[in-house]
Amino acid sequence: MPKNTYYILSLGCSKNTVDSESIAQVLNQGGLKAVTNPQKAEVLIVNTCGFIGPAKTESIETLQELASLKRPDQYLIAAGCLSQRYGDTLSQEVSGLDGIIGTRRWMDIMELVKRIRDRKHPEPLYHIPTEALTVGNDEHGAARVSIQGASAYLKIADGCRRPCAFCAIPAIKGTAVSRPVDLIVNEARLLRDQGVQEIILIAQDSTDYGYDLGLKNGLAHLLNQLVKAVPDVPWLRVMYAYPGYVTDELIETMASHKQIVNYLDIPLQHAHRQTLLRMKRPANVEWVYGTLEKMRKAMPDLAIRTTFIVGYPGETDEEFETLVDFVRDIQFDRVGVFTYSYEVGTPSAEFPHQVDDDTKEERRDYLMEVQQDISLQRNQVQVGRVMDVLIEGHAQLEDEDGELTGESISLGRSYRDAPEIDGYVMVMGEAPVHEVVPVRITDAMLYDLVGTIDLNPPTIIQPGQIFGAGDL
Asked: What domains are defined for the chain?
């Protein structure tokens, strides 16, 4: 087994994926080489997720599996959210760990590797500072990006200062810390130079960007700078907006630049005032109605994604029905529904009237059934429209018996689809991979669209021809 090699496995969300890429850059700078086979690596790293119970279980099981296969000349390091949250006890659940490093000092990974190599005892070495120093000049020159095909995630901030009662992110990541505008702009240029067609701005709360830098409407300011810096990147996408902080300036900025796709992910979590108050979330539901109406007037083809938590402590039948009515009323394009996860250490874990698991599951399934009808209707409206589609790959069609037909299709995404979480556009024939092509939509399914490459792109339907102004 060659020395100075590493294998890294990233679990959890896209923000974790960016961290894993940054860790890899630091290791590369330190003279280590990445390998894809853990058996051929000297250093094994799992960038864990510890946000909710199932993610914690997956992380621990992954670490245990690698530990069971580890040879004496290999080192196993647990990194990421689980390490930051449960670092003091993690070695009790996973025997064979050599190092534990949290989210707040990922850039010290090379120093930890050197200490592990030089240690004189078998106990794991810990590197879990409580102070969050993860941005700016302290990033060891690592770009905070993750390229996935023709798309790339670009992290604009880390941490969160919101008080949500169900969420452990502030305890794991620390408070919100924004990255300097010039660093983000320079990384966007690097992505442009590598042929990236879509830059996805991510943070725990993107609409809080710049608050700690003294910027007013920081996200709008950043978007305007990016539009100037990389005008030849076709798509800029914003993820993870926070209710109450989508300002008029942000709406105007998004509507004014074609390059900024008319898509917004805004996790609302619930729609009943009392539930939201118990969640310690913004409880002004009228703000949601008013803001979405503003956005749809400014961007009539806007695609809105949100997420909800059902079965939150104290959620009554009436509160759940309010949420169902809200979903029917707003008509979201994309919705994710999650059952409440009991997390030790969060305020909601101590709340009375915990909802039983069966009720949680029933409510999730019912709300998803309601949304499926809405999603299908929103997709059916797209039939006949010519849309720009970013092609990501090819596949072979199968018949009803699962046999390959020999007919090829291309898989891509429109502006309405964020990677990994939304649907696809299935394009008949082979379109060029990693390019944006015009596609005429011919059919619609629950989550996906079907289309053909359009040979007459000037017929593209313009914004405003699909939804009426203020149509909710």
From this structure: 5-127 (3.40.50.12160), 139-380 (3.80.30.20), 386-459 (2.40.50.140)
pLDDT band at 278 (very low <50, low <70, confident <90, very high): very high
- The rounded distance, in Å, linking the Cα atoms of 175 and 163 is 10
pLDDT tens digit sequence for 374-414: 999 999 999 999 999 999 999 887 767 777 777 889 999 99
3-state SS of the chain is: CCCCEEEEEECCCHHHHHHHHHHHHHHHHCCCEECCCHHHCCEEEEEECCCCHHHHHHHHHHHHHHHHHCCCCCEEEEEEHHHHHHHHHHHHHCCCCCEEECCCCHHHHHHHHHHHHHCCCCCCEEECCCCCCCCHHHCCCCCCEEEECCEEEEECEECCCCCCCCCCHHHHHCCCEECCHHHHHHHHHHHHHCCCCEEEEECCCHHHCCHHHCCCCHHHHHHHHHHHHCCCCCEEEECCCCCCCCCHHHHHHHHHCCCEEEEEECCCECCCHHHHHHHCCCCCHHHHHHHHHHHHHHCCCCEEEEEEEECCCCCCHHHHHHHHHHHHHHCCCEEEEEECCCCCCCHHHHCCCCCCHHHHHHHHHHHHHHHHHHHHHHHHCCCCCEEEEEEEEEEEEECCCCCEEEEEEEEEECCCCCCCCCCCEEEECCCCCCCEEEEEEEEECCCCEEEEECCCHHHCCCCCCCCCCCCC
Per-residue pLDDT tens over the stretch 24-50: 999 999 999 999 999 999 999 999 987
CA distance 135 to 213: 12
Mean pLDDT over all residues of the chain? 90
Asked whether the predicted pLDDT for residue 467 surpasses 80, the reply is: no
- Each residue's pLDDT tens digit, 359-372: 999 999 999 999 99
CB 4 within 8 A of CB 74: no
Cβ-count burial of 213 within 10 angstroms (0-12 exposed, 13-18 middle, 19+ buried)?
Answer: middle
Q: Which residue has the tokens 């190599």?
A: 117
Answer whether 328's CB lies under 8 Å from 374's CB: yes
**Closest by CA position to 218, among listed 192, 184, 257:** 184
Confidence (pTM) = 0.89
